[in-house]
Amino acid sequence: MHTKPKKYSVFSLIKNALSYHENWQPAWRSPDPKKEYDAIIVGGGGHGLTTAYYLAKNHGLTNIAVIEKGWIGGGNTGRNTTIIRSNYLWDQSAALYEHALKLWEGMSQELNYNVMFSQRGVMNVAHTLHDVRELKRRWHANRLNDIDCEWLNTAQVKEFCPIINTSPHIRYPVLGATLQRRAGTARHDAVAWGYARGADAMGVDIIQNCEVTNINISNGHVSGIETSKGTINSKKIGIVAAGHSSVIGSMVGIRLPLESRPLQALVSEPVKPIIDTVVMSNTIHAYVSQSDKGELVIGAGTDGYTSYSQRGGFNIVEDTISAVVELFPLFSRMKMLRHWGGIVDICPDASPIVSKTHINGLYFNCGWGTGGFKATPGSGWVFAHTIANDEPHELNAPFTINRFSSGELVDEHGAAAVAH
Amino acid sequence: MSKKISFTFDGKKYFGKENHSLAEALLDNGIFLLGRSFKYHRPRGLISAGSEEANAIVQLETGNITQPNVRATEITLYEGLKAKSQNHWPTLNLDIGSINDFLSRFFPAGFYYKTFMWPPKFWEKYEYFIRRAAGLGESPTEDDPDKYEHFHYHCDVLIVGGGISGLYAAELAAKANLKVLVLEQYPKLGGEINNQGKVSANKFRESDQNIIYQNIFSKLEKFDNVKIVTSTTVFAYMHNNYLLASQKTNNTKIREIIWKIRTKKVVLATGSIERPLTFHNNDRPGIMLSHSARKYANKGIDLGKNIIVFTNNDYAYEAAIDFKLINNENKVTVIDIRNNSKGDLIKEAKSIGIKILFNHIVTNTRGRKRINSIFVHKIDNETNKIIDNYGKISCDILCVSGGWSPTVHLFTQSRGKLIFRESDATFIPNESFQNEISVGACNGTYALEEILEEIDNKMSNLLSSFKIDIKNNNHPSLNKIKKIFYDKMKHLWIIPSNINFKKTKMFVDFQNDVTAKDIQLALKEGYRSIEHVKRYTTTGMATDQGKTSNINALGIISKLTDTPIHKLGTTTFRLPYTPVTFGALAGRHVKEFFDVERTTPMHQWHLDNNAKFEDVGQWKRAWYYPINNENMHQAVNREVKATRKGIGILDASTLGKIDIKGRDANEFLNRVYTNSWSKLGIGKCRYGLMLGDDGMVIDDGVTSRLGENHYVMTTTTGNAASVMSKLEDWLQTEWPELKVFLTSVTEQFATISINGPFATNLMQKLCVNFDFSYENFPHMSFKNIEIGGVNCRVMRISFTGEKCYEINIPSSYAQSLWSKCFEIGKDFNITPYGTEAMHVLRAEKGFVIVGQETDGSVTPVDLDMSWIVSKKKYDFIGKRALYRSDTVREDRKQLVGILTKDPNIVLEEGAQLVEEVSKPPMKMIGHITSSYHSPNLGRSIALALVKEGLKKKGKTIYAPMPTKTIEVEICDPVFIDPLNERLSA
Ligand SMILES: Cc1cc2nc3c(=O)[nH]c(=O)nc-3n(C[C@H](O)[C@H](O)[C@H](O)COP(=O)(O)OP(=O)(O)OC[C@H]3O[C@@H](n4cnc5c(N)ncnc54)[C@H](O)[C@@H]3O)c2cc1C
Known about the structure:
The complex is a heterodimer. Chain A contains eleven helices and 19 strands. In chain A, helix 2 crosses helix 10 and helix 3 packs across helix 10. By secondary structure, chain B is α+β, with helices and mostly antiparallel strands. At the A-B interface, helix 1, helix 5, helix 7, helix 9 and strand 17 of A face strand 6, helix 3, helix 4, helix 12 and helix 13 of B. Flavin-adenine dinucleotide binds next to helix 2, strand 13 and strand 17 of chain A.
């Protein structure tokens, strides 16, 4: 049996320092899987872990397990560029992401784990008249949805982020930007670890190095999963496997409307503070922020081709970097330190699927594509609700699989499209 | 004597020697303290002599050429070089931050996850200080004056590494007449060969090596099929043998060049990196990897008289022997973890008076800014427990060696699989994934005779696909090589300590200040997988990318968890091998070349006539043409009015034009557009809407039928490329049975659009003999007309609601025809109008712009254009989607016109619309898509998408803006000439 974890605080840190840190407990246990659980979550990324956490916390389901083929947080959760914002265009998305943002705002205290959520603002820059029109549309929609958002003209952009190049003579001059001040970044690993610790404390079994190889179904109802550690039974199974969701879907003949594509990111060498916000530009394809370690964190759009290899074409990196240097010429002598890619699962309308399926007891949470990190707590919250009640939460009701046959899409691609 | 070169370090002037690195010059000046560590601000000096350097990183130069985090080992000294140490305040010698070192107990791995949470609002303040404390060097703050370039190269064999292995492999490939490229990261070829002084310690080996090297090198020089480039680091090994390298040039015009290499075969000969040993206080200035120290000494740098070598293997004795031979006065002591060694080098060391302490370890060191003494204990060979205190030994320098790690970074980047070799506790390449071989030290092969044999065998396999046999090659003077016997090493991942482990500071990752007990803490706290340990402790995440720390971290985890190392797996080595300059990655794609700028053939005219431009995709389009200090509003009003009264002329060349030919062209159009094309006669034009497979509008435009099987399609400017590729996609993947050929002719034809009541008059003057009567050339038809001797394609179509001729003329004649129009149009007050006036004109007519009125969520029915959707056609792209339950809803958002109650208010495009105004959140029913002042109506007009808008015409709704709410009425979207009378009047 596990004991309740000791609280983290300055005092516990000092106390443990005096005993040379010999007495810390594991943040989570490493149990062997039981024969059966009340619910199983497949995928130990942020979304899977928050699902388990809220299943236990909000719905009292504690005899549950998270099954992860590698190590928790090792998928996109540990590979993303951690931009968090809620300034989405459509009401349905705005509501879901805003719910998540509110959870972010209390997350460190809720988890007693510092996830370093840093509200240094996210600025979406406009370079063409078309951008201006679309970003203003989003700004007005956000305002009326009571989501904080401001429009900055070029001079205000410069004032907010002095190192950005606002010369009118560059190829795509900065014509303005939206700013969401409550938006920002967080420490991705800490989110996975913090929720894992929280879930574990409530009795959730987190089982790593355990790959799901099949899903068992009898009479139209799930009965359990086959894994590299044997059969595990459960009447409720939630799949939260991001880029590999379609692989799991195909185990039970479900074809998900997803494309899996590489998305790349990189960091520079660490330097002293130089940029104090997140700047995103969709038109020239780049975004930049600076981590608490001092690294510039940089990303762009997905590769054009579907693939499961966590590596994309180098041309994307070159394009991204030239866009960064265009917006921030002073970064030209900085250096790329590390580069990586993740596999993102993209729906045709660039919105997620958080849904029941035609198989009883089988639920999918996927399609978060290039921008699901920000949704992590909200996604788990509503998915837990869906699994516990066999009924979607009002916030994820629009995000069913069925919308692709009804046509009720939430198209975040076309309008004011901003990835991440 | 070599030339003296002056340079400054931390503002103080020094002199160095030619061809010395900055690291060498600093040591030569007796400077050992070079920087402060990331977290604890511990004084640090050089640990190595190469690209694996973790400590000695400096801020190079100042102003617009400054560069943070430069490894002192990688910079060749030049006159006037300025370097500054990093991460300290106020000075390197007296750094307040080093208080962290004394408080280090309170900053264990991951401490920040456990604190800074109270009170919640304070995180912002804590973070401010955390951020200031983090980071190493400083970002430049000015524009980079330098230029960079990209260089593409194709070859048969790429050889990475210009040491003896790489060069020998190059020779074999060269002899086989292949195109060979050799890249070496350092300025000088030879690799380890350069690591020998005038006094060659290892007389068993190195003289042979030298001879062989000279032999190969002199031969290589004679081949013109071999290209050798130095100062060039291969930093990425991508799929399909695509590799990237970055070259530092001496050229003042181009600072760095990125090589993009596609090669048939790759030979990795990247050598190996020495490992530190993990013991208490193993990080002081003056503690160096043995091989690096030896390299410095052999370059004539005085590192002191009192030298200690602490090792677990035979190779480190090379350093010990050299130090003794360089100066017999030197006192050299070897502390060897092993209980004995029968190696040849040990015999030699003994013979020249080097003191060896077997079964001994270094347990502690002293000397804050430079090491001055060590503490030595004796261990039991079986239990490795400390059994005796040897005492303190004073020293000037401590050379350490924990064995060698092959440089397998590129190999793993290529997706090759590693295997763990117990004998020297290291990962070596096992299975190649691409067309590649690893040879020499990077393959874990160290003895010269073995290396040469390995290269013979592997190269002969590698080159066999070229049908080349190199089997009969003779090793260069292999027969002369004397074998040296090296005894086994002994691996202790953590050197035992006489104090409690939990009180030790045994550094694993030097730059990030990760200690062995940090790793222990991570494991204790449940962060067990190597990736978790790495992320929790940040080991291997510094600017040296773990070159010296990764393997030791793995070893420590293996020891602490009692798990065989190969079961832990390795962490992934991510590209780049060494950091790469952003500017170099961007190459010439910066500033004016950031993105191509597309201009029309009439661009110069627009410039000459004071046009303001708008970016539309890559195009520069004339936006409006102010005259006499007009503002935009005035200019646009004038242009719009002139077009409806006389003649307006628009440069519409940017519209996409796709030439469609082939037997099935008509069927093809039927499939890609919603309306029917079967009955379109030759010489006729038709407007079409293109949908995505979700039934949403993605493009529109007019297509003309030029002949039986020949059409020209126009697309919107912004979508030209994407429509072209979509059409190709459908043809090639969905309908391969259709015989249709597509050619983009966007740039072959320029388009001049002549609009207005006098448009026909102008056309008649342009082509006197042509019959422009409505009967002969009605609206929506097409004619080939010769204008000024040039065959033009003229369409009578209209996007303004006025009579209009769109002349498509071969681009090279466009400018002259354009000017000609002005000449003869004077009488009709011919006025050029830009995209803004074009927008107003079409909005007055209620014409949509795809991408403005539509956003990927709008169907033709939503645009009130059901007339264009064929009910009879068997199928077209998007048809099925149009009949989904959501798409057939009648309360969808629909296109309507909007009139503000106050005619002077021009709404903001993007403004949201509501039926009831309240405090946010408010229920939005739509948004303004287009909005202008209409000079013809003398008031503002707008288009909008509004939920159930078609049913709500006449209703009052609201646009709540930040400062006020604007009252508006829903109306018909056609504001002018609803019966299209002007087209034929
Ligand atoms: C480069 C990059 C940058 C990004 N930037 C941002 C950003 O700035 N902001 C933002 O909001 N989002 C961003 N994203 C997207 C974001 O990372 C994801 O949407 C989000 O993290 C998804 O979380 P997840 O838990 O669903 O997926 P993951 O973290 O990928 O978790 C899925 C887990 O399922 C496991 N799994 C898969 N198959 C199986 C199986 N058969 N058995 C057991 N386990 C299995 C995987 O190992 C993995 O751990 C970015 C993504 C990438 C790749």
